[in-house]
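S1.2 Input.
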Amino acid sequence: MLCVPVKSILAFQSRTVCCVAIKSNGIIYPKHTNFAISKRYAVTDFVGINTKSKISDFIDRFQIMNPLNKAKYEANSWILYEKLVDQIPFDQIMTKLDLPDTFNSWFIITELHLWMIFVRLMNEGTRGTMIRNFIMEALWNDVEFRSKKLATVSSDIRHRQIKELSDQLRGALVGYDEGWLSNDMVLASMVWRRVFNKECNDPEKIELVVKYIRKQMSILQLQTFDSLFTKKDVKWIKFI
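S1.3 Output.
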């Protein structure tokens, strides 16, 4: 499944997810140049963010946990996931970086872009964490859907491979966070390990990805929550 051509995967890109209606249960853990920014938040480093008072945060939590509000957040998160993934410049990235035409390449590119969104969402306290979790659910539902369409393998093998992807994703989020909070050298090391699977001998390609991340993140950090989540006005910059 992981070696299925990515062009076949992108053929499913135009489908519309019917939010919660098509969500399958139990897919949370399925199987296979610097730009100055005032503050940097990481996906795995949410504890130290003090943007609101404790009373304000409690009120937010109370409102968000309302079943109706939670359902709205969930539906909007799934729609946001679809818009985010639909606009990722897969062809540009794969061509520039000479990545193999596989399902695994699609997943790694998607993973990188979602991580950048997750970092931005960590600015939003409780609601940002909840939206991140809903987007993760949408991702695994999408992976399950695509894997069934693309490969005629047994369910046991498919679930084992998706489980491997899940484990890799957790490690990747930590690695990208470390690079984001450190410097370009650390970030480049992570890009080399994850995007190129330690098989890239061209530093210019690695630098290209690092610059892309820094530029995109500088834009996302300045974007308001309303434009990101309510209007879903997220445009990935051109990968050049």
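S1.4 Remarks. Residues 74 and 134 are 6 Å apart (CA to CA).
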